[in-house]
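Chain A, query sequence.
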Amino acid sequence: MARIVFELDIDATSKEIVEALDTQRGIAGWWTEDVTAPAAPDRT
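Chain A, predicted structure.
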């Protein structure tokens, strides 16, 4: 199976990146506004 690797330069702190990927508000800010996520750390 082929392996696909993406590399990006992101102008954000590690905290901002985690919040964007691991919180309902963060995901709604860049992916979709119709999102429901658990309100607990490490659950996304």
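Residues 1-44 form one domain. The chain has a mean pLDDT of 84.
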